[in-house]
Structures are given as structure tokens and as C-alpha cells.
Design brief:
Layout: H1 13-25, H2 31-36, H3 39-47, H4 49-57, E1 60-71, H5 72-76, E2 88-101, E3 104-111, H6 120-142, E4 146-153, E5 158-161
Parallel strand pairs: 3-4
Antiparallel strand pairs: 1-2, 2-3, 4-5
Length: 162
């Protein structure tokens, strides 16, 4: 849904519902998929500090695919099979969202994991490596510095900053 959401649209239940209906008509979502969308959580996200920054940014880059080459040992450590020094592996991923703010980039990743407040530190660590690779890829793609990296947790509205 966020891939196609108009962040300049009305941040209300009616406004989000209208956008969902438009996504169904454009065959971006099925009616069944649209029925599972929790509009209140989208509104909470869009009203968060991060959501407001995204709205203010105007231009959002979403679902940005990347491919990058990384030293095998960096990814897998010293496990058997990495071969000689200099051997590389190809990492591929899709960055949920990024935007520019004051000449630097802001990286955003969304998570739908169910997380209790006591687990926030664990979740942040679980995704740290992913966020670092996304950040490196984005810097390579754009040649610009990353000023902030965030994970937004839809289950509870928490914003994790790296």
C-alpha cells in the first residue's frame, strides 16, 4: 500500500479509503488485500514525525531495487566455502523508501513484525545489518550521504533510528 500511497493526499480514514479504492481500480491491489489494510495504522504512520517528514519531502523513492557486490568474508565470516581473499557475493534487495532532506538522504524501512516494547532493542539489532547494506547501496546508487536511517514498526508505531 505504501508503495502506491499518495503522501500528499488527505490523512484521514476517508482519504486513505479513497486511495485504497483507487489502488483496487488500478489493479495494484485486490479487494481482498485492500480489506486487510489497517487504515488506522497508516494514519498513525503518516501523522508520525517520520511520516510528516516524508510528506514534507515531496518526492519519495519507493521500492528501489539494488544489486551490489560484497566481499564473501564480510557476509559469511570465516566459514568454509568463502574461498580466497577477494572472492565476492552479490547482494540484492529492495529499499522500501528514501527521500532527500536538506541535501542528504533519509532511508526508511517498514516492518510488520509483532514486537513488544521490551523487544525493541532486539528488533533493532536483528535488522542492523540489513539497514547498513541498504545504506551502502543507496550511497553507491546516488553518490549522496545518508543523514538518517529508520525502521518504522507498524504493529506499535515505534520508530527505530540507527
Amino acid at each position: 500500500v505504501l508503495q502506491h500511497m499518495d503522501f500528499g493526499g488527505e490523512v484521514s480514514e476517508a482519504g486513505i479509503r479513497s486511495q485504497l479504492e483507487g489502488m483496487v481500480k488500478a489493479e495494484l491491489l485486490t479487494e481482498v488485500q485492500a480489506g486487510y489494510v489497517d487504515i488506522r495504522r497508516i494514519i498513525r504512520f503518516m501523522n508520525s514525525d517520520l511520516g510528516r517528514s516524508m510528506i514534507k519531502a515531496g518526492r519519495l523513492y519507493r521500492e528501489a531495487p539494488f544489486t551490489m557486490e560484497v566481499e564473501c568474508a564480510e557476509v559469511f565470516g570465516s566459514i568454509i566455502g568463502c574461498g580466497s581473499e577477494g572472492e565476492t557475493v552479490v547482494l540484492q534487495g529492495i529499499i522500501d523508501c528514501w527521500f532527500e532532506e536538506e541535501g542528504k538522504l533519509v532511508l526508511v524501512d517498514y516492518k510488520t513484525d509483532y514486537v513488544t516494547y521490551g523487544e525493541l532493542g532486539q528488533i533493532k539489532e536483528r535488522y542492523r545489518t540489513q539497514i547498513e547494506y541498504y545504506s551502502r547501496a543507496l550511497e553507491q546508487i546516488t553518490g549522496k550521504e545518508i543523514s538518517a536511517k529508520y525502521i518504522y514498526l507498524f504493529c506499535n508505531g515505534e520508530i527505530l533510528k540507527y
